[in-house]
Amino acid sequence: MEISRYRPGIIQLQVLIWAAVLLLIFFSLLPMDGLLKSVIYTIVNTASYAIIIYGNILVLYPVFYQKRRFVWYGITVTLFLIATGVLRGYASIILYQHFLLIKANPVNLLALLGYVPGGVLIYILSLVFRIAIAYFTLKQQTEEILLQKSQAELNLLKSQVQPHFLFNVLNNIYYRVYKVDPLSAGLIERLSDIMRYFVDESPKEEVPVATEVAFIENYMELEKVRIRHGATINFEKVYNPELRIPPMLLMTFVENIFKHGIDKSRRQNQVTISLVQQDGYLVFKTSNRKVLSVATNQPSGFGIVNLTKRLRMLYGSKFELSIDQDGELYTAFLKIPL
User: Can you say whether residue 316 is alpha, beta or left, with left for phi > 0 and alpha for psi between -120 and 50 degrees?
Assistant: First the structure.
């Protein structure tokens, strides 16, 4: 992984290529033209090559060719090559005369046009150059994606190791507390089971109904600790334990009961829950007495809204969901196909 950090990027590769072009042109001219003339020609020629290449791949090609304006692309390329060829010729002649102290002569247009054909080859090379840049860009993006994937896998491994370390610690605490306070030790065990459910079961597409029910019961036992006078919960369960459903599908209703349906000042809170399998459907019902003070002071969440969206994604229109708030009871009803 560390080696990839030192691989040259697209810009670095282009800099290396242009440095190589500069040196190649300079040393090829040096034996015949001398140092000063070679430097002049090298700078002018390399600059004109860069203008043609980047002018085409950054401006003309995306503005005209990629937008299927082929006629305009051909016209602008022709004018562009003529203009760059004339400018290259003019700059070469003027600089040559200036630095070598040669008497300036009138610049002949025909002589300047003689520099244009050389730009045609550079234009063709610009297309190759563009393909090369696109290839290296794609290759670099692919390597970055693979690196990110490896990093994500490593993070996932870490996220799996850390919770299991915490489970082991909770187990050790459980055995120590159990000798002194078995009731508190039982709560620690339920908390450990809930955490294990979130790590091991909730990422799955489906879980056994028995596992989902065990998670709900553990959650309710922990919530009951927070209630001063406790709560009476009647939970009817009639289903095949091996039946599988999407995880966290029933939890929203149970969570709402303890958020909005429990009056901590009352000595008796009655909650009724049923989960029944019948006629190819799984029917889940909850019923609890409404608490006006809780309902008015706490803002309504998005649990039911998000649950509805999820149910539509899972079952389309084949489910039933209803909330009844008439009278003193708050009743939720959910029916999903099996």
Answer: left
Residue segments in the chain with a per-residue pLDDT below the cut of 50: 1-7, 161, 294-300
Alpha-carbon 267 to chain mean position: 50
Alpha-carbon span 244 to 251, nearest angstrom: 15
Determine the distance from the C-alpha atom of residue 323 to the mean position of all C-alpha atoms in its chain, rounded to a whole number. Answer: 36
Mind giving me the DSSP string for 180-232? H-HHHHHHHHHHHHHHHIIIIITTSS-EEHHHHHHHHHHHHHHHHHT-TT--E
Using an 8 Å Cβ cutoff, are 50 and 119 in contact?
no
Mean of all residue pLDDT scores within the chain: 77
Strands 232-238 and 270-278: parallel
Burial of 223 (0-12, 13-18, 19+ CB in 10 A): middle
Cα separation, 313 vs 116, whole angstroms: 63
Closest CA to 288 of 324, 237, 252, 322: 324
Question: How distant, in Å, are the alpha carbons of 215, 243, 274 from that of 234?
Answer: 16, 22, 8
As to burial, measured by CB atoms within 10 angstroms (0-12 exposed, 13-18 middle, 19+ buried), residue 37 is middle
**Mind listing the pLDDT tens digit for each residue in 35-90?**
877 787 888 888 888 888 888 888 888 888 888 888 888 888 888 888 888 888 78
- Enumerate the β-bridge partners of residue 108: none
Whole-model pTM over 0.85:
no
Q: Contact at 8 Å (CB) between 211 and 244?
A: no
The answer to whether the CB of 236 falls within 8 A of the CB of 273 is yes
The string of DSSP letters for 130-168 reads: HHHHHHHHHHHHHHHHHHHHHHHHHHHHHHHHHHHHHHH
